[in-house]
Amino acid sequence: MLPDVSQLILERQGDLLTIWFNRPEVRNALSDEMADELAAVLEALPGQRDIRFVILRGKGGAFCSGGDLKMFKTVFQGGSSREQIVAFNASFGRMCQAIDKLPQLFIVLIEGFAMAGGLGLSCIADVVITTADARYALTEVTLGIPPAQITPVVIKRIGASEARRLLLTAQRFDGREAHRLGFAHFLVEDSAALDKKADEVLADARKGAPAAIALTKQIISASETLHGDDIVQFAAERFADAMLGDEGREGMTAFAEKRKPAWAAEEHGQ
What we know:
48% of the residues lie in helices and 15% in strands. The chain is of the alpha/beta class. It starts with 7 loop residues before the first strand and ends in a 5-residue tail after the last helix.
């Protein structure tokens, strides 16, 4: 069961869950409460096997403008202890790890603004689609703080050289440059095209078996920490589990019978 939320909107359509940031009046800046709600939803998702795909996007024509700076000043600099600030920042890092561990395909749709922590969150998505006029920046150093938790994911996404330039200079750029750099996989012209491209991506992704996608994500993650014989063994064991599982048997049978496997034959939303 997914948790109750107030600063997010959870929109369920069949096997798809769309998570909306819902603070459009502040360009969906991440408050403490919003971050806690998102973390709770992400932590619940691995147990929701009827949800195959997750989209994260923002209401009001903006994805996310980063952390709530008003909260930073009034709460963090208005009496919070160092330990409390450390705990908050670490919780953002754990939220990033929760995204990385999701068994579902995780898609981010960006329009309007993707700044600071908002941009960092998108760096962990499996698929990112951006509008050409979306505005991007890693602005933390201009505020006297480091981009603490998102630095590793930005480096992982676009490489150390370009990441260093953007993290240290806070240079602003648009969706076209974000696509060129590798922050986004697909570039579209406007919001209508954003939805259309998302539908196309989902149509392709539904050809894949849910557990096979989850296992593939496990292997991708393991390849970052395991090497040599360890990653060989890890991947081989996941392959064997899938081959002997229900999906593997169904996939091989469907191929032999020249039909779609059960997971691909199901209509969206039913």
